[in-house]
Amino acid sequence: MPKALQPHPDRALPAGPARDVARRIHDSTKDLPLLCLHGHVDIGLFATDAPFGDPAELLVVPDHYVTRMLVSQGVSPGKLGLPRRDGKQSAEPREIWREFCANWHLFLGTPSRYWLEHEFAEVLGLTVHPSAETADELYDQIMVRLAEPEFRPRALLDRFNIELISTTDAATDDLAQHAKLAADLPGRVVPTFRPDAVAHVDRDGWPQLVAQLGELADVDTTTYDGFLQALRQRRRKFIEAGARATDHGHLTAAAVPLGDDQAARIYAAALHNEVKPEDAAAFAGHMLYQFATMSAEDGLVMQLHPGVLRDHDPAIFATYGPDQGHDIPVATEFTRSLRPLLERFGHADGFRLVLFTVDETVYSRELAPLAGVYPAVRLGAPWWFLDSPDGMRRFRELVTETAGFYNMSGFVDDTRAYLSIPARHDLARRIDAGYLANLVVQHRLDEDDALQVAKALAYDLAKDTYLSNR
Questions:
Q1: What UniProt keywords are attached to this protein's entry (predicted)?
Q2: Tens digits of residue pLDDT in 309-335
Q3: Distances from the Cα of 315 to the Cαs of 75, 80, 90, 383, in angstroms?
Q4: Which one, 233, 244, 258, 401, has the greatest CB density within 10 A?
Q5: Where are the alpha helices (DSSP H) in 42-175?
Q6: What's the angle, vertex CA 40, arms to CA 35 and CA 43, rounded to 5?
């Protein structure tokens, strides 16, 4: 018989005397609206509101947690439907789904298993676990569900109780889809300004991107001054479209300004494809400082999540392109790297910097002390490889005693996988409920205070971090 799919009501809550307290705390937050302000869901889903195509397209192909685990066990990326640079046909959706179901056991112990079980049972109404034997049956059940009007992307905003969701948009995005959406769903889906592609001058096609930036901003970007002017102009357009934040995924946290002459020299060399690697790295750090200057001017929250070596596997990059999940964390230093930026803006009114990391060795040594002294700094929720039950628990244990609860950004999910959003928020709320419950039973926190903090972590802090200064 197929194994029944029944997520336990106490999943991820602590055992022992803290469980009853954790239940009460979780009950107080589980129905709060979701603020999804660090998201990567494709804006096209909401702009077109077209039905989802099939289970593979929805649940497997866009989820890097899923695909990287399967690839790690020898499954070819082609079998998982990853789009190829050369446009050659990928696997058929049902075959992708069968491959995923046959390897369902690989996700035991991972947060992906938790999120997917939540999605299957509570969103899609499935009652049995995926397996080679149940794959076709589940595929057909999901296809029926996806054809229902209440499973259109916009309808799910209401079902998931999403109050506000952000997408991630390049500086060269014309925001046309956001303009369409603003008329249909005003104030519900907003862009986030991500200028990484134009800040890294050694990337392929950079001169063409900068030219495109200039065209959109109606500014001559053949000079460094024009480049800065164009970025400010694009930021204004993003703000008009509802943007609340910027997003920066640099390799390091270095934010060290260059002299104007040096920055202009590197910029000019890059336009001719003659930039040196060390100059490109210095310019990227310089631009982080410039983006902080701009955020201090226009109020966009600056989000920084360094420390990931992108496209680690050159063969995967060559065949399937960037952002296919073959990215690996590296050790990251914040204290010295951010000192120039924080010397100038750490106490500045209207400036906010949210720091994320995938290097948990810096939680108590660097991030908590930085957030515990600079009013501008908030700590982002555990991100990527650390947005797991134990990862989130370690985060609370390592940062709270120095930074407290109110120097946090609150939980904001970081995902392209739309259906996983409520599962991710639910897991974060359960972990926080357990952490707070343990403090209550140890008589380190009153239960009334724990209930107040739980609401702050689930909702209030995200609202204050991202929405209070606009």
A1: Isomerase
A2: 988 999 888 888 887 878 999 999 999
A3: 15, 16, 17, 26
A4: 244
A5: 43-48, 55-59, 64-72, 93-102, 111-118, 135-146, 153-159
A6: 95
